[in-house]
């Protein structure tokens, strides 16, 4: 699914209005009504009142449409007009006229107004600013936002939480609505996906407003949201006459004394993600545990008891995962460099593999083209240095991918994948995954898919998606608190089954 900027969304609205022969007021009615339907489904009946805070632009216009429909559905509503400007948008004014003709309480909120008494049984609809916010609001409007944030009622934001700008948040001190849920129109909005701004909305979902399909399909963008529809199309069936040679021989190199589990989870994840064969190279201390806990995986022990000191497999791997639990010893670094001098196939570099890379930048030139690197923000910082905000971080990820011809997977709530030409935010996953070992599992899944001949970008997007999906299914049984990395492996089959069920 594409992600657009404010200017593109405005053009999408304009084209929609022209092609569907409707007025902008009708499009606003469609947007507001559909959002009202969702509200009705999820929040109504409500013990208390609904407070609809409306700005002077079209976001406020949406709020007024919602208020009218709530009133018609017999819900007690109070409209609070936040008078931050003398200029009202035409469609907002038209909707205000319609609301004023009904028996709906309307109050005006100005600089000197005091905040109304809102109780826990009430619901606040934030329709103050949407995608039109272009600078920080006046101090009294920011105070209002902070008051809403401290009131006990639940808060639902229309399109975007007010105070959040499409290109991020201005400074740490900016006031932004903390929304329990944001209903955003037609396409995901970038600031909802980035950590600095996204944290303001606990959850969000899309309200389709039937924008012009040709525009949505043809308008170019760098940013995408990976959804299940696309992933279903990517997932390959396994033909009846295939054999283990058809699905690649994955080679996992990792582990060191005390951290053999990382390599083990990575290997088991590769196996469960469908590799034809999996071999794991671990230091001798890991031999026994690997052979007993995952008998399907072949073990290639190195000569040293505690460390990887040489990587010389007696077969040609189709895909390699390098790094989990490997440590950063100088001998391990030399073994990695020696291996990379002759290996030119698919590679996923993670964890200590990335830490070694940060300490030995000469390793960049030895990486095969389209190597997948999977840093978390701490590892990414060690690779590229600090960034001032999310947008700069995004830019740095894209530049790194382009400059080094790698695929960057920057792990987070909406893990992003970039090849330098596009940025793909993942839609699956949950906070239970913030636990040791879940990265090792991801590395194994991506390496496995690369070996099954998915193109590198596709293998990576599908791997990230399945990893999150598996964890989402797992927490139905385990809860987010108790989720372990090995659960992600255990539920991977359910993730495949879910995607397969959508194929039919
Ligand atoms: N254009 C359309 O046809 C549709 C628009 N929709 C709604 O319209 C919203 C966008 O509406 P607008 O473009 O009117 O903008 P907003 O309603 O988001 O913002 C209000 C206006 O405030 C002004 N402004 C920006 N920063 C300000 C500041 N710091 N202090 C005071 N004023 C400031 C801007 O001129 C902006 O137009 C969307 O988020 C969505 O909710 C929906 O109704 C769907 C259809
Ligand atoms: K809003």
UniProtKB/TrEMBL annotation:
K(+) binds at residues 59, 126, 162. Its cofactor is Mg(2+); K(+). Residues 9-217 form the YjeF N-terminal domain. SUPFAM superfamilies: Ribokinase-like, YjeF N-terminal domain-like. Its EC number is 4.2.1.136, 5.1.99.6. Keywords: ATP-binding, Isomerase, Lyase, Metal-binding, Multifunctional enzyme, NAD, NADP, Nucleotide-binding, Potassium. (6S)-NADPHX binds at residues 58-62, 159, 262, 325, 376, 440. GO terms for molecular function: ADP-dependent NAD(P)H-hydrate dehydratase activity; ATP binding; metal ion binding; NAD(P)HX epimerase activity. The keyword NADP applies. It catalyses: (6S)-NADPHX + ADP = AMP + phosphate + NADPH + H(+); (6R)-NADPHX = (6S)-NADPHX; (6R)-NADHX = (6S)-NADHX; (6S)-NADHX + ADP = AMP + phosphate + NADH + H(+). Residues 227-499 form the YjeF C-terminal domain. GO terms for biological process: metabolite repair; nicotinamide nucleotide metabolic process. Gene3D superfamilies: 3.40.1190.20, YjeF N-terminal domain. InterPro entries: Carbohydrate_kinase_pred_CS, CARKD, Nnr, Ribokinase-like, YjeF_N_dom, YjeF_N_dom_sf. Binds 1 potassium ion per subunit. It comes from the Bacteria. AMP binds at residues 411-415, 439. NCBIfam families: yjeF_cterm (TIGR00196), yjeF_nterm (TIGR00197). Belongs to the NnrD/CARKD family. Belongs to the NnrE/AIBP family. PANTHER family: ATP-DEPENDENT (S)-NAD(P)H-HYDRATE DEHYDRATASE, ATP-DEPENDENT (S)-NAD(P)H-HYDRATE DEHYDRATASE FAMILY MEMBER. Bifunctional enzyme that catalyzes the epimerization of the S- and R-forms of NAD(P)HX and the dehydration of the S-form of NAD(P)HX at the expense of ADP, which is converted to AMP. This allows the repair of both epimers of NAD(P)HX, a damaged form of NAD(P)H that is a result of enzymatic or heat-dependent hydration. Homotetramer. This is Bifunctional NAD(P)H-hydrate repair enzyme. It comes from Robertkochia marina. The lineage of its organism: Bacteria, Pseudomonadati, Bacteroidota, Flavobacteriia, Flavobacteriales.
């Amino acid at each position: 699914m594409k992600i657009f900027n404010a200017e593109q969304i405005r053009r999408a609205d304009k084209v929609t209005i022209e092609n569907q022969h409707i007025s902008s007021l009708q499009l606003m009615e469609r947007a507001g009504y559909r959002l009202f339907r969702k509200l009705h489904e999820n929040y109504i009946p409500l013990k208390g009142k609904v407070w609809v805070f409306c700005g002077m632009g079209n976001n406020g216009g949406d709020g007024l449409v919602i208020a009218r429909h709530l009133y018609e559905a017999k819900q007690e509503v109070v409209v609070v007009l936040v008078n931050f400007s003398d200029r009202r948008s035409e469609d907002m004014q038209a909707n205000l006229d319609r609301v004023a003709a009904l028996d709906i309480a309307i109050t005006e909120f100005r600089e000197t107004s005091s905040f109304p008494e809102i109780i826990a049984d009430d619901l606040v609809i934030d329709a103050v600013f949407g995608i039109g916010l272009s600078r920080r609001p006046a101090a009294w409007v920011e105070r209002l936002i902070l008051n809403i944030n401290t009131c006990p009622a639940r808060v639902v934001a229309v399109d975007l939480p007010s105070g959040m700008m499409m290109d991020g948040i201005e400074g740490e001190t900016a006031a932004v609505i903390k929304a329990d849920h944001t209903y955003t129109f037609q396409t995901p909005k970038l600031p909802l996906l980035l950590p600095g701004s996204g944290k303001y909305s606990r959850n969000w979902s899309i309200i389709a407003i039937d924008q012009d399909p040709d525009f949505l399909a043809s308008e170019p963008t760098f940013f995408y949201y990976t959804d299940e529809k696309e992933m279903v199309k990517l997932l390959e069936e396994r033909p009846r006459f295939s054999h283990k040679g058809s699905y690649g021989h994955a080679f996992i190199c990792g582990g060191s004394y005390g951290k053999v589990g990382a390599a083990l989870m990575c290997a088991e994840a590769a196996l469960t993600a469908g590799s034809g064969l999996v071999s794991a190279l671990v230091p001798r201390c890991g031999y026994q545990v690997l052979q007993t806990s995952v008998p399907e995986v072949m073990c290639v022990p190195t000569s040293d008891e505690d460390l990887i000191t040489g990587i010389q497999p007696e077969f040609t791997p189709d895909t390699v995962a390098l790094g989990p639990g490997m440590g950063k010893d100088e001998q391990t670094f030399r073994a990695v460099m020696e291996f990379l001098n002759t290996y030119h196939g698919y590679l996923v570099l993670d964890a200590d593999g990335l830490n070694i890379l940060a300490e030995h930048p000469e390793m960049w030139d030895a990486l095969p083209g389209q190597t997948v690197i999977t840093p978390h923000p701490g590892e990414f910082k060690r690779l590229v240095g600090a960034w001032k905000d999310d947008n700069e971080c995004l830019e740095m990820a894209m530049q790194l991918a382009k400059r080094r011809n790698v695929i960057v997977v920057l792990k987070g709530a909406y893990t992003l994948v970039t090849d330098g030409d596009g940025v793909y935010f993942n839609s699956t996953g949950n906070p239970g995954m913030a636990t040791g070992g879940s990265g090792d599992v991801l590395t194994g899944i991506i390496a496995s898919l690369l070996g099954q001949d998915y193109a590198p970008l596709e293998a990576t997007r599908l791997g990230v998606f399945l990893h999150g999906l598996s964890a989402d299914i797992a927490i139905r049984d385990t809860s987010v608190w108790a989720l372990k990395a090995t659960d992600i492996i255990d539920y991977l089959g359910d993730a495949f089954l879910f995607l397969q069920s959508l194929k039919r």
